[in-house]
Design brief:
Blueprint lengths: L18 H19 L4 H9 L2 H14 L6 E5 L5 E5 L2 H18 L4 H5 L4 H27 L12 H13 L2 H11 L6 H23 L2 H8 L4 H17 L5 H34 L5 H5 L6 H16 L12 H17 L11 H25 L3 H12 L5 H8 L4 H31 L1
Helix pairs in contact: 1-3, 3-15, 4-12, 4-14, 4-15, 6-7, 6-16, 6-17, 6-19, 7-8, 7-9, 7-19, 8-19, 9-16, 9-17, 12-14, 14-19, 16-17, 17-18, 17-19, 18-19
Amino acid sequence: MQDTTAQIVEDTTPLFTNDTIVFGLLMVALGLIFYTAKQKTGFWNKFYKIIPALFMAYFIPAVFTSIGLIAPDWVTVTETGEEIKGSTNLYYVSSRYLLPAALVLMTLSMDLKAVFNLGPKALVMFFTGTVGIILGGPIAVLIIGTISPETVGGVGPDAVWRGLSTLAGSWIGGGANQLAMLEIYGYNQKLYGGMVFVDIVVANIWMALLLIGIGRTARIDKWLKADTTAIEELKEKVSSYSKKVERTPTLTDYMILAAIAFGTVSIAHFGAGYISSGFENYVDSMPAGLKRNSLTFLSSPFFWMITITTIIGIILSYTKMKKYEGAGASKIGTVFIYILVASIGMKINILDIFKNEGLIFVGLVWMFIHAVLLIIVAKLIRAPYFFLAVGSQANVGGAASAPIVASAFHPSLATVGVLLAVFGYAVGTLGAVLCTVLMQMAAAA
């Protein structure tokens, strides 16, 4: 007898599906956030002393998604039962166009020597974050496995530890490393969407907590007994330079800034396409194995786009273009960053936290261990909260999120986040493999 039962697909169409309308809604939200954040007295003044505006730029779009106003992707079910999938392009546009534009504009006034003078604590905290991910995975598997063995069970391609390997790749490196782990360990691709879901939920919860912490930076640094001298000197140096060259921008200034920003975007995409294609051919020609998969990030256009953008920004910071900081280069870059933050925020549905609770708890325990190790090391070496937050996000969020967190402290620090994120791409696959070996042992224990 033939089984006539069919899986019922839920219609998840949001109220607004047109990107033009959604973008306008996000911009209105950002405008209201900045308007209320500038209030000198009353409720909003007290509110933003606790919750930073950058967090609200992330949280409000998440609320819009959670209540069904907007969505990153959706399924529309017609009257005839046909399923039509839809999605927004806002995050892609923000991350591929506005992010590199923001990075070059915020790098124009950078003092590379002063960045290096920040010392080794930035790298120490970055690699601490990496170790936290490597150790956090197997510990989380052991803890959750003791409470709910089936959550971390499975055999063959369905083994959960194989799926968790993709999280390790994402949280140490990025998307390219994540896909490399999927190829190395052969996780069931029909179940892979569940791991991507855990990645999005847990990573965004952690990013939200880091953003909240920025509003308490002074208190956290005091508790850590951190030496913030080098950071404050860099911020002061850039701020002083900005005031020195500050002028009332003209239309010509804005057009030249637009040329610098989007000319760089064009060059970065052009170069990234050729370079990534060349490395893709090189990597594909290598015999299958760990060496081949550890180099997959080199075939990622996004990696090369960010790298080329950063190099161009650094070069321009040694030219007369640097003076365009006085015309508001970093301010325009910050506008682009906030739009990116809002587009990231709309990717998370708060209600989804209550779906697939088992794997979500694995991810939360994993991230908790990562956070605890960062706090312990920061306390021991007296590292500022800036290094803790950016070192963590360079691992977990990669090049798309690390400069967001870094620039929240000061626009001149955005490049620090990018440089650390590049390390993440380089060590992502090897670190994830080590983490996966330990998770496999933990799952079998």
